[in-house]
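Fold it.
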Amino acid sequence: MVEFLLLKQTPFFWDGVTKSSRASWIYANGLTEFIVPTEYNSGHPPLWITLLALFWTIFEKALWSSRLLLLFVNIGVVWQLVLFCKSNFLKTVSVLAVLLVCLEPTFVAQTTNLNNDMLLLFFTLLGLNALIKSQQFIFALALSGLLFTNLRGIYVVVAIALIHVVYTRLKLIKNAKPIYLGYVFAFISFAIFCWFQYEKLGWFLISQNENYNAHRQSVGLKQWFVNSVVYAKCFLDYGRFIIAIFLVPLLVKYLKDKSNRSIKIDRIAIGFFVFAIVFFVGMVPFSNPFGDRYFMICYLLAVILLINLIAHYNLSKKPLLYATMVFMFISGHFWIYPATISQSWDSSLAYLNSYTIEDQMERYIDSAGIKPSTIGTRILLNARNYSEFKMLTEADRYADFNPATNAFILLSNIDNQTKDEELHEIMSKWELVKRYSQLGVFMELYKRP
């Protein structure tokens, strides 16, 4: 609620901008069409963008109504997270430990971001809770929601199916056979959608839009290694390395001690490893760049697992461990890498600083009488009709980034597309006109020498 009140006019950010553009197409067609044309379509199913268009239709096409939808989704996620912790925390764990789980930095950042990841997380937790409690109808709803929210929902469904098999074989849940109908219902409903999309567009799942199709290609051995390093980095980013430091020795001790086991710890550990392995196999071999937000369920399971192991062994320094985790999670929002290193900006609250410096820079550009059309940039300033529902005139539009023709260049570390050599060339040889920064996020205006 506090986030909604403070950020209700905060624009769509990064990948959220493309979601807004597709939702705008559905909205413009009066909710009569849900299969977005190939020129806009990345291949992701349309549940989130349809919900956005629906909220715009009920209320108005505005940032506050978009964030009202996000608020409802956030409430649903926290509700399911509390239920999950209630079912899987050891009896000796305080209920306040849920707050520690909710402080996970990428989770916090995503509660502020108008993208579909929180909706995906909602259905993931809903599915896990329904599986543990053998709730057939809710399980079918959760699996269907996963498939219709995001292509990564396919990986989540595969992971849940594997978890289901392991849980059943190890007797960690009841073997309620009617719940298997949930897979059938989800598969049939999604197959029908894919058939309709194929009939309309001539393709399904793998977009024929060249801007997105390039992200679905397999990679060679070298890129496999690079992707593996990036994958591991995601699990250690934004203060999460403290979880690994505390968790690994406790987990090794737990796995060696086969006489002192807990069903709840086993369930969480299995869930974590299955999700981590499925995501690795499903993403690392391909060219699609991935960010920290993709693996939120793994981070949350890791925190819950660590809390359970601390309670299981009744560690004497429990308050110190918890305090350190809180400190590291909060510090994660201040992690800023050098401009030459790509960063998952939507995975910590650091990205919110970009709006302040953007406003300062544009006020300077206006006061200095510099025309935006003379400034080349890769910052998504020309997408404001989708990011903040602001129609731009030609005089307000910035030029495409091209150092060979631009009189000015506008750089920011919030942009991951500018290559290292381009950054070095501009920063070392062009004249710095103005620079604004806030907590490590910067924006710089350069003039051709």
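The first helix runs from residue 2 to 7.
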